[in-house]
């Protein structure tokens, strides 16, 4: 370890970029010290406003994040950006291009950009993403933006982490309203029709409005914002809309509700992780784990019997 | 309880339809007795061939399942079908129509159809789906087909459960090759272009072939099969292709590999579930759980401290 952990946590809190990068790397590598750093940082979190942006490839997410970041910087806000790249080889090129485009911020100390690879092929948020959000939050960034290609699980994850979730769509992907679809539409707090200078924008507006009529649960009237991100059009409308959503959450006590739910989820995830690691670790040291899995696989033992064995043989003293 | 559990498990094994339906309902309701039934049935599983079918809404999945089932029945095979419905209100109508279309099998004792709702809005397989597969497997169905709308997580789940996974596409959803996309393409063992009498079929073939060139990991050459399911065209080609994939798995020892991996996943899931339930249940009885979550939510306590408290206060004697 190059520096003591509490020193690293302190430096993260002071916004030291190298310390932030190092803390994130420790988290990504699942290093054992990452837990104690997150433990220390935790009390300093809860201040950043977290925005999630999702949408199909080619919708212009990075450009939009770029322009939104510029506007926030003009207002004096600092911005942390987590760009979650699907690991798929097919889309790697485009995403790399996006990263290069964003390097215009690289000399701006008020912006921190980190790309993360997803572990699974399907574009869900890397399991470490929400921990990285905590690091940027504790480091004092006013706004944290999570950007991810929308492929199912990613959207659920982003909704859990972000206060405001934007879904980017592009006119002409009309079928996508059908197939990007039902379930996924419901996660957005704000729809953004990007490239709104293209044909089909009005039809898309109409289609979206019809969908939205079916979807009034929280009382929030999901706005549809038109942008042409590469010409910086509509960005201030979008930011105004994000602020309206912030106000809505505040007025309806939805922040505390969300924080409570997230805290519980985090405790449960962590509890499950620690328990499974402890019990499994001890049983594996008995050297009978592989044999047991083979027995289950051959139907000589049921998974229920296997679990019963692992639990009943556990000895907390051995820890 | 209407009948003793072991009697219910026995009747499931004999293929008694009412017993099968009841066992599935117990699983869906997460009834406590469902575990002992699955425990009993487990040793009788591993015989059914499990096929997964996924694809966007409107691709014709149900019609294809329907025709594939007819063909398998003509060969004398019995077929269990699990149709996973996303809970979204938008697609409810179409899926209901599908169910009605499949009622032509309802008088055939060799076919058992069960619709299941997914719990989350994004169309992942219901967490109980793999347990229902075990019931149909133990009940003696030769083939079990899982049909689900493709929305991200669903595909991952289906790949874990099924031996052969089909991805249905339809010409004219050309953008979808981009956006149904990268990650998801990789899960399919067989691509099916359904409605292959429509314009755009050859272009889609070409596009798919290019994608496939980038994707040669296992050595299996992913075939592309053209079907027009509502006219029963291409169904026997598809079945032949499924059989070729079966042979490939067998020749390369991939069945045991998959079974081993699935068995381990199942043990880990179950272990994590049982441990979390036990520790959390005991801590909740102390009456301090809500207060703890509130403290975490207000940053007065970190999730790590919360988990440490729950684990260190656990007393196995209390169980």
Can you tell me about this structure?
The structure is a homodimer of 319-residue chains. With 319 residues, chain A is of the alpha/beta class. Chain A has 3 domains: 43 residues, no CATH class; 208 residues, P-loop containing nucleotide triphosphate hydrolases (Rossmann fold, 3-Layer(aba) Sandwich); 58 residues, no CATH class. In chain A, 52% of the residues lie in helices and 13% in strands. The first copy, chain A, is built from 14 helices and 7 strands. Chain A has a 7-stranded parallel beta sheet, sandwiched between helices. In chain A, strand 6, helix 10 and strand 7 form a beta-alpha-beta unit. In chain A, helix 4 packs across helix 11. Chain A starts with a helix and ends in a 7-residue tail after the last helix. About 4% of the residues of chain A have low confidence.
* Average of pLDDT of chain A: 84
**What would the principal axes of the Cα set say about the shape of chain A?**
globular
Backbone structural class of chain A: alpha/beta
CATH architecture of the largest domain in chain A: 3-Layer(aba) Sandwich
Element string of chain A (H = helix, E = strand)? HHHEHEHEHEHEHHEHEHHHH
Uncertain regions spanning at least 5 consecutive residues of chain A = 87-95, 178-182
Number of strands of chain A: 7
Over the alpha carbons, how many angstroms does the gyration radius of chain A reach?
A: 22 Å
The chain pair forming the largest interface, with residue counts per chain, is:
A-B, 78 and 78 residues
Which strands sit side by side, in order, in the main sheet of chain A? 3-2-4-1-5-6-7
The level of helicity of chain A is: 40-55%
Strand content of chain A: 5-15%
Tell me the CATH topology of the largest domain in chain A.
Rossmann fold
| Largest sheet, strands/sense/barrel of chain A | 7 strands, parallel
Distance between the termini of chain A: 24 Å
Classify the oligomer.
Answer: homodimer
């Amino acid at each position: 370890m190059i520096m003591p952990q509490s020193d690293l946590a302190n430096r993260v809190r002071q916004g030291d970029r190298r310390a932030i990068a190092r803390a994130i790397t420790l988290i990504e590598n699942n290093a054992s010290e990452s837990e104690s750093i997150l433990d220390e940082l935790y009390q300093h979190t809860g201040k950043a406003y977290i925005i999630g942006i999702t949408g199909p490839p080619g919708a212009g997410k990075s450009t939009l994040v770029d322009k939104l970041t510029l506007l926030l910087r003009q207002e004096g806000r600092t911005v942390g950006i987590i760009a979650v790249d699907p690991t798929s080889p097919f889309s790697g090129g485009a995403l790399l291009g996006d990263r290069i485009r964003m390097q215009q911020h690289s000399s701006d100390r008020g912006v921190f950009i980190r790309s993360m690879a997803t572990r699974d092929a399907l574009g869900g948020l890397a399991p470490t993403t929400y921990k990285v959000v905590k690091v940027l939050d504790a480091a004092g960034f006013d706004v944290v933006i999570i950007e991810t290609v929308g492929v199912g699980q990613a959207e659920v994850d982003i909704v859990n982490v972000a206060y405001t979730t934007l879904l980017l769509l592009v006119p002409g992907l009309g079928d996508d309203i059908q197939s990007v679809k039902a379930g996924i539409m419901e996660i957005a707090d704000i729809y953004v029709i990007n490239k709104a200078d293209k044909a089909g924008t009005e039809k898309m507006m109409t289609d979206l409005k019809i969908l939205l009529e079916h979807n009034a649960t929280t009382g929030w009237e999901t706005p549809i914002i038109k942008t042409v991100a590469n010409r910086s059009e509509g960005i201030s409308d979008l930011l105004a809309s994000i602020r309206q959503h912030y106000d809505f959450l505040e007025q309806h006590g939805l922040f505390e509700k969300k924080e409570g739910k997230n805290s519980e989820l985090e405790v449960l995830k962590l509890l499950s992780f620690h328990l499974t690691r402890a019990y499994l670790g001890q049983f594996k040291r008995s050297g009978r784990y592989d044999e047991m899995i083979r027995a289950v696989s051959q139907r000589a033992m049921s998974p229920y019997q296997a679990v019963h064995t692992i639990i009943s043989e556990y000895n907390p003293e051995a820890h």
